[in-house]
Design goal:
The chain is mainly alpha-helical and 84 residues long. It is built from one helix and no strands. The protein starts with a helix and ends with a helix.
Length: 84
């Protein structure tokens, strides 16, 4: 094999190797992006669930507080309207 053919074959081989590496790298980047997207969706879902629980608990607490105040107010009105 002549030197010229050897250099050409070596150059072609190097070009194909770098092209294959670039494809593998891009493929891995896409996989990584998919995994990161999945993890972000899980984190968002967890945060949503936690926030919903906190909001529900706060609403429940506020409703119970309002009910107690209403009951006290109703007792006052009843005491005022009863004949002595």
């Amino acid at each position: 094999m002549s030197l010229r053919k050897f250099v050409l074959a070596l150059s072609l081989s190097a070009a194909m190797t770098s092209f294959t590496f670039a494809q593998d790298s891009a493929k891995q980047d896409m996989k990584d992006a998919g995994h990161e997207t999945k993890q972000a969706a899980k984190d968002t879902g967890h945060a949503t669930k936690t926030t919903a629980k906190k909001t529900g608990n706060a609403a429940k607490k506020g409703t119970n507080k309002a009910a107690k105040k209403t009951e006290k107010g109703a007792e006052k009105v009843q005491d005022k309207t009863q004949p002595n």
